[in-house]
Design brief:
Organism: Polaromonas eurypsychrophila
InterPro entries: ABC_transporter-like_ATP-bd (IPR003439), ABC_Transporter_VariousFunc (IPR051782), P-loop_NTPase (IPR027417)
Number of strands: 9
Strand content: 25-35%
Distance between the termini: 27 Å
Order of helices and strands: EEEHEEHEHHHEHEE
CATH class: Alpha Beta
Number of domains: 1
Structural class: alpha/beta
CATH superfamily: P-loop containing nucleotide triphosphate hydrolases
Helix content: 25-40%
Number of helices: 6
Pfam families: ABC_tran
Radius of gyration: 16 Å
CATH architecture: 3-Layer(aba) Sandwich
Largest sheet: 5 strands, parallel
Protein name: ABC transporter domain-containing protein
Bound molecules: adenosine-5'-triphosphate
Keywords: ATP-binding, Membrane, Nucleotide-binding, Transmembrane, Transmembrane helix, Transport
């Protein structure tokens, strides 16, 4: 589903990727690595939010370089630390995601809001929510989006135990998807989730 060919990317004082290639298929692929190894940067590159110095990215044959809007329309990625949506309530943020993704699953969203215990947070602006609740809103959007490629950065960070169990169950389901690819960046493999592949960036 996602093809990366000879990707190169450096920050001014650090080279992170040199001629790096990968094929990502349906199901859950783990991007594993220690602090500062480049997990979040790789997700930004795959999302088309950060321009590579060289290389090609395709989703279902759509090239980021040739058709950036069509490529980005196939990807769900809200950076967990994003402040872009701070003034929106979860209801407004989720409405915006619903408009963006044609396969957005409204019924699943209801179950996600319930399962992540977000009901009481839905009409507060995002900046008023705890880190964990903000992350849960972004996770709900990710799972409901129906995007061909969904990128999750540290999906369990700042979550309560019940939500960790719930998100693990969602990822177990995602591992069986035949039409959606999930790239999950974390320090270690999530327990119980069968992985379609592992991209190891080292420690
Ligand atoms: N905007 C930036 N400008 C310059 N260097 C950056 C920038 N963002 C990240 N870096 C550096 O690039 C490297 C990779 O950072 P990145 O956040 O991608 O790693 P990470 O694996 O996600 O880290 P963590 O697990 O700690 O979140 C780090 O050395 C970081 O300091």
């Amino acid at each position: 589903m996602l093809q990366v060919l000879k990707l190169c990317f450096s920050y001014p004082n650090r080279t992170l990727f040199t001629d790096w290639s990968a094929d990502v298929g349906p199901g859950v692929t783990l991007v594993r690595g220690g602090d500062g190894c480049g997990k979040s940067t790789l997700l930004r590159l795959l999302a088309g939010l950060l321009a590579p110095d060289a290389g090609e990215l395709h989703i279902h044959g759509v090239s980021l370089h040739d058709a950036p809007d069509a490529y980005r329309a196939k990807v769900f990625f809200t950076e967990p630390r994003s402040e872009t949506f701070d003034r929106l309530t979860p209801v407004q943020y989720l409405a915006a995601q619903r408009l963006r993704y044609p396969a957005f699953d409204e019924q699943l969203l209801d179950r996600l809001v319930d399962g992540l215990a977000l009901d009481e947070q839905m009409s507060k602006q995002l900046y008023m929510l705890s880190t964990g609740s903000r992350r849960k809103v972004f996770l709900a959007a990710a799972f409901a989006s129906g995007a061909a490629l969904t990128l999750l950065d540290l999906p369990f960070a700042a979550l309560d135990k019940a939500s960790i169990g719930f998100v693990t169950g969602l990822l177990e389901d995602a591992s069986a998807h035949s039409n959606r690819a999930w790239v999950v960046a974390d320090y270690a493999a999530p327990a119980r989730v069968p992985l379609a592949g592992v991209i190891d960036l080292g420690d």
